[in-house]
Task: inverse folding
């Protein structure tokens, strides 16, 4: 499965030398690995520049891939992590997930859009996760659980207070992309932070590995958010209902980013939920979010050339193709930016704000002012639509980023590589909101 998105579908863009063929270049970068995995080395070799071919034969390329496969296993899927213009060359970093491990590769293209280099990148030094200060180990305990649906078994974690019974419980739902149960990015584990923080305050939680991480090949065809998110979240809520130590009348769901978008839909599917929490949740369409993200990244690149502006305009026109609400003559499994046409149709026909308006359950909406992936624009839309409803609480945290940690500026994805825990203010507010007697 190819995927060009990272976190909430952020695509890196930079300078403009390759503006016309940029999107094609990103797709070709992933296709190269598919050709390798299918033993189509002659076709793969044709992507390389003659100067490269003069030094590396097709047999050498096959030998290299054989060694990689022996070490890492069978290729499962690929994702473009970043792309950047560097003088006369354009580099693309691809993450390739194999059955045994994940490996990043750097692909270098010349102006003729031919490969002049292919390099495996060293793995970054692992950073040990540090629990946040508000996680009191004397107050909580954790137990491995499994969230099950037909044909799927996702390992998860039940985190709960050590003492007492009858406490509230929250199901934690990830954002987009393949994620582990902690929503790990670099040294940061925001869902784990939340689980430990809430348990320290007397609130249990369930979190689990996302299906896209464990069963990536399930998403090659015409899948939608039903398979990606909804089925497993509902199964986790059902599991929460069976736990004897929790208060069945105090079931909540926390959705981050895409999980927040879908939280109102989940509230309809699980009407016994007492409330939903939307953190960094877009109020707009996914296409609008993608375009805004790319405009932001383009501004960060400080490219003021006409060619650069043309590249951005070209990208936006391509993104606009994802606004489809009907398949028409398009096949359900047709790929648009790494996701099926059925996926886009499903999301575009779902209106999260309108759905939330109809809910009777309590709703808490939290947004960070330093979030460059989902902006304050979305918070304002939520506030405009729901701000006067008695069952809705909205709060803007000026310092928080998309990972829900306190920052001094918006920054870029590099910010996520620095250890930073979920804001204690947010954890306190969520706990207080859950415990509020109304």
Result:
């Amino acid at each position: 499965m190819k995927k060009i998105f990272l976190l909430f579908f952020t695509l890196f863009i930079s300078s403009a030398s390759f503006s016309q063929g940029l999107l094609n270049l990103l797709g070709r970068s992933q296709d190269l690995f598919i050709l390798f995995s299918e033993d189509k080395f002659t076709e793969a070799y044709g992507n390389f520049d003659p100067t490269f071919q003069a030094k590396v034969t097709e047999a050498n390329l096959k030998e290299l891939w054989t060694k990689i496969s022996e070490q890492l296993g069978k290729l499962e899927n690929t994702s473009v992590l970043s792309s950047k213009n560097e003088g006369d060359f354009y580099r693309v970093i691809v993450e390739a997930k194999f059955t045994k491990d994940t490996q990043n590769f750097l692909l270098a293209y010349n102006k003729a859009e031919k490969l002049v280099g292919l390099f495996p990148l060293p793995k970054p030094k692992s950073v040990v996760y540090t629990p946040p200060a508000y996680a009191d180990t004397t107050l909580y305990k954790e137990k491995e659980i499994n969230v099950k649906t037909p044909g799927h078994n996702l390992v998860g974690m039940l985190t709960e207070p050590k003492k007492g019974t009858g406490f509230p419980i929250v199901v934690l739902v990830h954002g987009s992309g393949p994620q582990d149960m902690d929503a790990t990015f670099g040294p940061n584990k925001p869902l784990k932070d939340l689980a430990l923080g809430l348990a320290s305050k007397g609130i249990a939680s369930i979190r689990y590995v996302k299906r896209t991480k464990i069963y990536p090949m399930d998403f090659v065809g015409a899948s939608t958010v039903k398979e990606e998110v909804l089925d497993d979240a509902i199964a986790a809520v059902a599991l929460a209902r069976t736990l004897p130590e929790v208060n069945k009348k105090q079931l909540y769901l926390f959705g981050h980013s895409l999980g927040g978008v879908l939280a109102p839909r989940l509230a309809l599917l699980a009407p016994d939920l007492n409330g939903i929490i939307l953190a960094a949740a877009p109020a707009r369409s996914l296409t609008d979010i993608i375009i805004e993200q790319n405009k932001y990244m383009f501004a960060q690149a400080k490219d003021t050339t006409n060619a650069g502006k043309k590249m951005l305009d070209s990208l936006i026109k391509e993104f606009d193709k994802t606004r489809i609400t009907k398949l028409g003559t398009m096949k359900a499994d047709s790929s648009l930016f790494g996701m099926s046409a059925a996926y886009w149709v499903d999301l575009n026909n779902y209106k999260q704000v309108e759905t939330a308006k109809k809910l009777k359950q309590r709703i808490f909406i939290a947004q960070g002012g330093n979030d460059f992936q989902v902006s304050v624009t979305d918070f304002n839309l939520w506030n405009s639509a729901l701000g006067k409803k008695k069952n809705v609480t909205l709060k803007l945290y000026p310092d928080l980023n998309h990972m829900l940690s306190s920052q001094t500026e918006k920054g870029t994805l590099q910010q996520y590589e620095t250890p930073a825990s979920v804001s204690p203010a947010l954890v306190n507010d969520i706990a207080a909101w859950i415990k509020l007697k109304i």
